[in-house]
Design brief:
heterotrimer, A alpha+beta (363), B mainly alpha (278), C mainly alpha (305), B: 278 residues, mainly alpha, 14 helices, C: mainly alpha
Chain lengths: 363, 278, 305
Amino acid sequence: MAKLLLENLTKVYDNKVAAVKDVNLSIEDKEFLVMVGPSGCGKSTILRMIAGLEEVTSGNIFIGETRVNDIPPKDRDIAMVFQNYALYPHMSVYNNLAFSLKMKGIDKEEIKRRVFDTAKILEIEELLKRKPKQLSGGQKQRVALGRAIIRDPKVFLLDEPLSNLDAKLRVQLRAEIYRLYKRLNTTIIYVTHDQTEAMTMGSKIVVLKDGVIQQVGTPQNIYKKPLNTFVAGFIGTPPMNLLEAEINDELSVRFQQFYFTLEEKHKEVIRSSGYAGKKVIFGIRAEEITTSQSECSMGPVTGEVEVIENLGSELNVYINTIDGDLVTKVHPGTEIRIEDQIKLYFNTGQIHLFDKDNGKRII
Amino acid sequence: MKNKSGFWNKAIRLLLLMIITYILLFPMTVALFTSLKPPGEVITATPSLLPHNFTLQNYRVLFSLREFPRYLWNSLLVSCYTALISILVSSLAAYALVWMNFTGKRTIVKAIFFTYMFPQILLVLPLFLMCYELNLIDTKMALVLTYLSFSLPFCVWMLKSFFESIPEELVEAAMLDGCTYLQCLFKVVLPVSIPAVTAVLVFSFVLGWSEYLFANTLIISDTNRTIAIGLQTLIGYYRVDYGLLTAASVVMTLPVLLFFVSVQKYFIEGLVIGSVKE
Amino acid sequence: MAKMHLINSKSISIFKIRGQVLLFLLPAFTAIIFVMAYPLIKGMDISFTNRLLTYDKYSYIGIQNFLAMFSDKFFWYSLGNSIKLTFLAVAGTLLLGFGLAVLLNHQFVFRDIFRGALFIPWVMPSMVTALMFRWLYNDFYGYVNYMLTKYHLIAQPVNLLADPQLAWTGVLLPIIWCNYPFVMLVFLAALQSIDKNLYEAAHIDGANRLQAFWFITFPGLIPAFVIVIILEIIWTFASFDLVFLLTRGGPADSTLTLSLYIYKQAFEAKLLGYASALGAALFLILFIVTMMYFSFVRRTGVYEK
């Protein structure tokens, strides 16, 4: 149980490709931090640098009060769960779990006790005699978790542990990992490319792209106030609608089909940041778009229905308008068909404006 | 695929294989049966494939020869030492080449492949002189060292290819679990590499057991002779006794064959991975 | 996450320490240097001397040995024989190995048994192989000759190794016999690593078996072929054991290869210096051939991995 600090962390590979660029991050003790981003964004690289499996090009990593850059992985008091489980195929589950303890020289009785305890937590007691190839994916992942837990480390590192499992198992194990987190009361750093996992599990999320941190915050924060268009589009299912709009001199947001006037507090921001008369990117979540008018809604925007996704509990409707493609959620019972002409209203309580060129959040 | 033509295809294939295998293994079957024939049947103008009277006479004579069991023992020692030291040395080297990073690694890898090209006949002359100067002539150790060096390029290459096919996470997990390099090699990497290890052991053993040129040159006295040369001397004394000679051949081949057949699966798997991954 | 090839980029930081690296590599390299590199250099050194096998005094004579070599008709003759042997043996080995690999490329019950049995010739000691074939060829008491004459396939018994014309066949057969298993295995591995889906897709696209072979099988075999051919050439060209044990270069020097000639010069004529020069020539030829081969391969991009 310890806190971590990443200071100006950079990783450059031999071919001059910078995988991680000047990352600064502090992770509190007992926090469940999720690093999320598309493939190649550097999240796994950061994790591996924390583990000591990758050399740090520049910057510092602190676990607790100690700078660990030059400390070999086995001495950093961390444990890692790999995407491919990395179970020792020639050893039984028991020996897989016991291995790190054997390396430490702990006596047999103690090892036995700890293995059984861990197996009990993960409900894999009946599997102890088996070899990895006799286990299912979910069982293997549990053993991998067990191997990490048994070492009682300061920090748990999980590298996309659920990516190799089918959807149902993923949901199941997600909950189990979270339960484990609560039970073990320890620091976890979790890497995934699945934003659903990030949103449901983390107490703090770090969104990464191309080796640079895009945003750090709680799931709610990131969802409600994404700091740039990338985060806005990455987090949330379905992704946030992003449209081109223009702010005129009267500080109204103009689309091709309608316009609405900003609230006073927003007007202040626009005036001072000099966006009057400029083109911007307007963002709005699918659930903030309705098919019927209400008090704080603006519109209408008309368009043609292109795709309807029936998820059972709701329908995702994709509409093509002159202002851009939109997606909205409607009740499953709604009468709606492809090629219908439909009117949409924007709920202007939760709007997002981003700079057109660099994608940064304006309000 | 229709079943009918599939069946005929399989039948023809099987038949073809059986015929070809019979032809290819024919020299061995002839030798085997010859060794079981009494001299009268060996030296005859009308030989038959199978013996009319099976006899182990040739084998009895063989083992009663003073030198023969000694030759066998020498060969066994040399081959075992070669095999064991080979696997040790080559696994260390292959491990370093795969998971350690250092300058000149690529050139070293190329150099290893390069040593394949050294013709034995070229090396035998200077090696003979070197052994003489170091007083190593006529010692089994000289042979072991020589065979070791001949088997190393192949063994390192094979192990390296196999190691590269092991998922890196396995080694990383071991390092995280607290292994030193050596522990990781012996507790995790090698147990997982049984096919390649087997290939290396068999290859080195066979090399040591059946090598001729250097055994001929570096060993002079009868006491240290290996069986490859021992066979040769039998030809000297017993000019035309093919019964005896084939018996000696069978004895010389048997350990290799048995070893090979028992680990065949692993050996071929190891070779295959090693060659395809090249 | 793309897994990067270990040799090229990723360095597991824990293995930074150079000392450990050396320790791991040291045994292997000491052995190789001691038994291969050093003798090679020493051999080159001796080739500039007039040293004899009887360890007497000797002196450096510059490139005299090499000059003598160029005008030595036996050198050129044995070189020609070596080339001829390599060419024929490698061709035969490749054909046989390939054919067997194709036959073995399907799953059936006894496949493993056949594969194992067919692999045996490779592990046979050279001494035994030579003996077995000598016995097979024997014209007085040999079974093969007996059967052939009995059924009037040949007029009278013939010992392949005793006749200068036929000795080549007599020598080629055991060599091919010894070498084909390795080739067979490499081709088999390559054949099995070709994605089966490709064949199915081709079948759907309407390709017949011949076309499937040409467009799918053949290209998939090229990497294996590339490796196998150079290894076989090197091994056969430099090979000594079998030819020596079968014919000693006879009859009448008809099967005298360069390796054998070197041996005779060293151990029979006792001309160590000259023999070393010949050996150096052998090495040089092999070296040049290999270098040319690899630059050819690299240039045509035939070999991709």
